[in-house]
Structures are given as structure tokens and as C-alpha cells.
Specification:
The complex is a heterodimer of chains A (378) and B (396).
Chain A (H helix, E strand, L loop, with lengths): L8 H17 L2 H10 L5 H10 L17 H13 L6 H15 L2 H12 L5 E4 L15 E5 L2 E12 L6 E8 L9 E6 L5 E5 L8 E12 L3 E2 L6 H36 L1 E2 L2 E2 L4 H29 L5 H26 L1 H4 L5 H13 L4 H13 L1
Parallel strand pairs in A: 1-4, 2-4
Antiparallel strand pairs in A: 2-3, 3-7, 4-5, 5-8, 6-7, 9-10
Chain B lengths: L4 E3 L1 H17 L15 H16 L18 H13 L9 H11 L2 H12 L5 E4 L15 E5 L2 E8 L10 E7 L11 E7 L5 E7 L5 E13 L3 E2 L5 H6 L19 E3 L6 H14 L1 E2 L2 E2 L4 H23 L6 H23 L16 H8 L9 H12 L5
Parallel strand pairs in B: 2-5
Antiparallel strand pairs in B: 1-10, 3-4, 4-8, 5-6, 6-9, 7-8, 11-12
Classes of the chains: A alpha+beta (378), B alpha+beta (396).
Chain lengths: 378, 396
Amino acid sequence: MAIDLTLDDHQVMLQRSAHELFRKRYPSDVVRAIEAGGLGYSPEGWQELAGLGWLGICFPERYGGGGGRFLDLYPIYEEMGRFLVPSPHLDTVAVAGEIILTTGTEEQRRALLPEIAQGNCIISPAILEGDGWFGFDAITCSAERRGGDFVIRGTKLLVPYARSADHFLCAVRTADATGAEDISLLLVDARSDGIACEKIPNIAGHALYGVTFDEVVTPAEHLVGTEGGGWAPLSDATLKAAVLQTATIVGAARAVLDMTNQYAKDREQFGGPIGRYQAVQYLVTDILIDMHRADLLAKQAAFRIDAGKTFAREAALAVAFGKRAAAHLHRQAHEVHAGVAFILEHDLSLYSRRSKFWENHLGDARYYEERVADSIVA
Amino acid sequence: MDITLTTTPQLEHLRDEVRSWLEDELPPELEGFQWDFEEDPDRWAFYRQFWKQQGAKRWLEPTWPCEYGGAEMSARQARVVKEEFDRRRAGGFAGIGMQVGPAILRLGTEEQKAAFLPGMAAGEIMWAEGYTEPDSGSDLASLRTRAVPDGDEWVIDGQKTFCTAGHHCNWMIIAARTDPDASKRHKGISYFLSPTDVPGIELRPLDNLADGRQNLVLIDELRVPQDMMLGDLNQGWQQVWFGLGGNPIPTFDDDDPGPDEEYEPGPTGPAWVLDQLVRYCRTTTRHGRPLADDPVVRMQLADLAIGVEVERLLQYEGACGYGGHLHQAITKEFQPEFAQRCMEILGPLGQIQSGEWAPLAGEIDRIYRRSFGNHAGGTSQVKRMVVATRALGLPR
């Protein structure tokens, strides 16, 4: 009785389409140019994804979506990893879109989801703060009621695509949210007065910003979900999104494995290919083993999410392992390539630098290991 | 597209039957027997009898044809039986019947099938392994035990080693070189079936690190009749070791009408150990708080849970694109790692093997010692090399 973690025909087709499209659109010189360009993604590429229906792929049709399933995203994310496609998809669709869909008012859904699906709206979740921990206990940013508005004060860090964002989805503490877990979620127009964005230099060359909210006013109807009830939907959506990000890590690992395996065959030293040495074979097979384990765990989590089953434990296991695996497999790939990949013209460091972002975005391995521990010790 | 296990009322009925049988036949204090890691005579005596009773229920080889002592069960029926035996940690049938049975089903003559399969399914015949030699371990194809024809018999001379629990087994399967041209390696090996209590076979004990007994086997002018060769002359490596050729093994379907319902089988193997360890961490106090509240211990437990989950998925994954060697490489490296991490959580008390101060009644000590015996069937390094050269195409 084998369990079956194979994608269905439609998802296989999606993967093939994504593979062909990204291979054509995002050769490494394009990826490099986008990184250097400042925006951190390609607006034309974003429109192309919208045209394919891949932004609203999982939104219900009544909100301008494709009515698809969670698993449809898995192959797309895997291919985004393989070709290092830079895009706000994870943040805007998988985190913000998901929260608005599950928790937002009907008005918020009707206003925002079709706009996201059409590629007209980027929403950046603003969660992390100065102490660097992902959890609710690290959130200090405050929002105070003033008449029919909230007034927000505080600084968020590592906010993706802040300069391009139309809205922020900001995790804050409100006056009525007094308990440790009582976080509220506010949509904030990115052009509001009092918002200052500062680009943060980072190893991945990603579009990450520090965003300061200095008495920023947002109408009370921009509260997403209940006051003080924001952490549960945020935690749920980020956990699901982190599973998709693990698919990205798996996709990147496939590219890194191919690259490293080929190099071990081509590079000759001491009169033959270095891949004939078992010391090198161990490093290459490490990448395969990391990739295979991450794929199994992430697919199991994605299938459970897709089927509407409980997934907290399985997803946390997958994400924690995927983040550790990402660090390890890139290190092994560098060991095999040695000097040649230390030179920037080699593509391996495009992957290994981005790996550090995946290892930390939406929480680090430590955070998800805590979630695993919660699920087994509780 | 299903990653969950399902069951039906009929399957649950079978489960109830196995469960209540086990309640009657297996006292809790005799759980957890491992034939390859135990020599306690009382426990062996119990299990010899237990396997015969299990065989009488046709639950030793439930998927085999009825004429050979099986129950013609479908894969999922057999899975339910196995889950219940695993749940009670009932010791699995000793010897290497799991490998010999399918080989006889595929390659055996009608006489061989009739002579061995019913006895195996009844718990009467246990197979000892005669593959590994003192100078041929991972490089098994270099083996030097040779068989020379003499009339309608073969005369076998050589040495086999690491023969696990061989002294408990009444039959042995022996790989021998039948083509004297050693350069033919894989192409000159045949497999023979012999009783162990005959002149020509002598077992000398090799006690191992994990309380088991292996054996050095001295084979001296052992005479084996021609009809006790399994498979074809010189084809043993491909046919027996690699499982190629012969007749397909019959499989059986059930006509269970369902309806299917999801279920979660209980933890077995490392998942069971982790469950015990988590329980220990909840109930044991260190630094004035439960171990389970210690942040370092929590990280260690999370790490263990990830490895255990991978093992569970690998078990159910079946063949993957990279071949079974990838699975074996992962599992063989996981076992010592898992055992060591468990030891680290226990700390100094983890050394204690038995008595009132032994955590988990010494279970972690046992799995730790056993984890060094994870080379049977090839070391993890060999598995890695096979993955590297066959799955990834790196040079040999």
C-alpha cells in the first residue's frame, strides 16, 4: 500500500507550462538584471502571470479567480524556485490574498481579490519587527482608535516589495487586544501620510524594506478579521504559504542538483572527473537526499491542506526541514564547485544567496521547530 | 492521489480478529522481541511456539497461495495484519524467510515449492543466510565459496560469516561460485539450499554488540543434491540477489465492497520510540520543570519528529524515481543519528540498561547498540555509491 504523492494530470500540465514559460522568461541574466533593477520583480512578468490566471488561481470565481485547488500552486512554486522567478506572488497571493479570502469582509474580498487576480494590486504583509522573532510575542507595533480610524505607530522590518506595494497588511496591537496573542490585522494604503520605506541591504538582493509607520491613519473598516483575532488567520496563512515556499526550495534544489552533478562529471582533476571520488559523491548525494526528503514532507503537507484536513503538524515538519535542508544543500553544492562558484559570474550563488531569504522568510527553522514541538508535546 | 490510509468494515473486522488473537496469545512482557538481537532462551522458546500458532492462523505469510500455507490475502488485508502485529510489537519471524520465500515462489521447482513453502508458512522452517564471507562483504560478488559438481551432487567448500541467528535456523541458503573462472564474478554464482544440521556445516558463535549472536559458518565438503539448487546454474546473482526472472509471484485482490474510511495506524518502529520518549519528557523533571518544557529538548524532539516522519513516508512511498537504494541510504544513516539524539535527551541516565533507574526500561540503550548493526544488506556508503553512480550517473 503505497501512499501516492503524485500530482494529477492538470497539475502536471501546469508544471510543464510553468517550466517552459519560466525557462524562456527568466534565464539567469534576466534574474540578475531584475535584482540589480531596484523593483525586485518584473511588472511585465507579473502581468503575464495575471493573464495566465495564476495570480487568482485559487480564488473562487466570484472574486475573479480560477476556482482552483491549493495543490495547483505547488508545481508553479516549484518551478519558480527552479528558475528563481522573482515575484510578489507568495506575499500578495498566498499570504495577504488568503487572509482576505478567509477572514476579510465581503466588501474587502470584492474590492481586493479581483484586483490581485488581475495583477493590479500588490499587498505586502508587514509582520516582523526589530527583535527578529516571527511569533506574535514579538509584535509591538500599535494601533489606537481615533474616531472612525486607527492610528498606527511602529516599524516593520524585511517587508517584501514595500516600494511597489499598494497596501500593507500590518500586524499590530490594538487597545482591545490585550492578551499576548491578541494581534489585529490592518490594511493600510501604501500612499498614506506618515509611511517611510527604506531599502534594507540583504544577502539575497531581495526587495526588502524597513517600513516605519509614524501616526499613519487607516479607516476602521480596514480591519481584517476581528480586533485581537488576527494572529490565528495570519499564522494559518503563513504556514500554508511556507509550505509553498518549501516547494520553491525543492525546485531550486533540483536546479542546484543538476548543476552540481554536471560539474562533478565535467570537472577533471588528477586525471579524471572529480565525481569519481566518493568524497564528492557524498556531497552530491546529500543534495539529492535533502531534496527528496523536503519534497516528501512538503507534498504530504500540501495534499493535506488541499484535502481540507488538519495540517499544522505536517506543515510545520515540512517547513522546518525544508529550511534546514536549504541551508545544507547549498553549502554542499558550494563544496563541490569550490572556487568557480565563489566567482559571481557563476549561477550557484544566485541560488545560495536566495536560500538565505527562504530560510528566514515567514519565520526561520527554529520557529517552525517550536511549532513541531508544540504539536508533539502538547 | 491519496496519502492517507483507508479501511473498510471488513478490514476492521479482520483487525479485530487479529487484535483479540494477540491479546490471548501475546503477554505484554513478551513484546518487543527481535530475533536478530536476542538470545534469551525463554523468549526464544516462547516465540518458536508463537510463530507456529501464527502460522496456523495463516498470518505468517498471509499473501501466499493457500496451497503453500498462505491465506491469499490482498496487500491491504496483509497490511492490517502486519499493523496489528507491529502495534503489539510482536517479534517478526526469525531468519531471512522474507527474502528466500519470494525467491522460491519465483524460481523454485514445483518440488522445492512443496518442500519449503508450507513449512515456512507454518513457522517450521527458518532460513539462515549464507551470503557474506570473511573477505566478501560489500563486494559480495567477489565471494570464494565454491561448489564443484560430483555426479548428481554438488560439493561445497568455503566460509560464510555474520550469519545472524543461524544456530536457531534449520535451513541455510548458500551462495557459491559454480564457474571456477573468478573473473566472471557476477556471472558464475549459484544458490543452494541445505539443512544446517548436516556434516559439512559448522557454526561458530560471533556474539554482537546488541545482544544477538551471529555465526562464522565453516563449510567443509558439504554435499548438496542437484535438485537443491535454486534458480539456474551461474544465474544466481541476477535471479536471487537482484530478484530478476522466474515466474511472477501471484498476488490476490479482495472483493471488499467498502466503504473506505480514513484511519491512522498507531506509531510503530522509531515513531513508537519517539512516543515513549515524549512521554518520558513530559513526566521527568529537570531544572525544576518538565524536560518537555526545556527549549533545547523541544528542539531535539522536533528534530527527531522530522526524521521519524520522513521514515514513515519512505515506508509508504514505494519505488521512487531514484530507486530503493536512496531510501536505504536515508534509513541507514537515520538509525544511528536517531539513537544518538535520543541518548542526548536522556543524558547520563541513558547509560543505564535495566533496573529502576533505566529510562524507558533501557529501550534507548538497545536501539543505540542495534543502530550499529545497520549494515546488513549493504552499508550506507555502498548505498550512497549506488545512488551516485546509478541514479545520478557519476563515474564509478
